[in-house]
Please model this.
Amino acid sequence: MLAVRNAVMEDLGAIFALAGGIGAGMTTLKPDLAALERRLQTVEASFAGTADPADADYLFVLEDLAAGRVCGVSAIKAAVGLREPFYNYRISTSVHARADTGMVNRVQSLHLTHDLSGAAELCSLYLHPDYRHGANGKLLSKARLLFVAQFPHLFPARIFAEMRGFQDGQGRSPFWESVGRPFFRMDFHEADDLCGTGDRLFIEQLVPRLPLYTHLLGLEARAAIGQTHADTVPARRLLEQEGLQFEGYIDIFDGGPVLQAKVRELRALRESRLQAVARGRPAGATVCLLATTRQQRFRAIVAVGDPSAQTAVLAQEAMEALHCAEGAGVRVLALAAPAR
Model:
């Protein structure tokens, strides 16, 4: 059985190994041992409730309990842009028309913004290739939303996730080549690494302030705007099922889409229910996410249940995976979003 739990300092080596397999494009999880150690210190303080809200960072790991192996990570940063600038491009379209000729010209432009500063960020999602099957990816991604549902007071009104942008078969970002390189004069991977280590000052110093008119970009760069990296398409689909949507913001490096939602409108907040645990043969036939209600010892699993019941009837194995006893409260949500 696999379980999601809050990360602790003892996971440092395993998280470092996972980070080494990600590749470019995920600035929030780099294979930097010292940086990861500092992050885990903040993570432990966040789950303990002692971190400053501007620094709070809730990092989760997915553990194969039988093998004792950490096989995935995901996270929520409680608020971005409060300690350092946080940038995105906002896509805008202006219409220029001349009535006497009937000519209409629609022009798309990109505007540098701080609009998402103060919002919570879903980030650092990575699942080891050995475990990319079954419900493992859904558990890793969606369990953190049950954490938000259980502790909504820890988060602001808006939450978002930056999706990795399109790269070609050689790992080249067309958007970066047309938009980033002329101003930053460095490779995409170098800029990505600088941003991943927390050095965002170079963005403020080098990024152009005026709108960028997309019709002046190359065809490949224009086609990449708002497009998702092939490896990230499943993660995007899962987040869209939970209520996040693309609202016209993109990453300034690779043009990847930013998905957003109001926290109160997430499916986990609207549809999850608290149930009391009872030992026995599982009732119901719905595959569910079940999560504990403890902030410092949060755990979540996938098990069969009844999201509408008052009681969560669980097998002994599931109770052990959750580290809960009979009578304990768990938050329950159907794993799959209902068809619309």
User: Anything to note?
Assistant: The chain has ten helices and 15 strands. The chain has two domains: 2-88+114-267, 272-334.
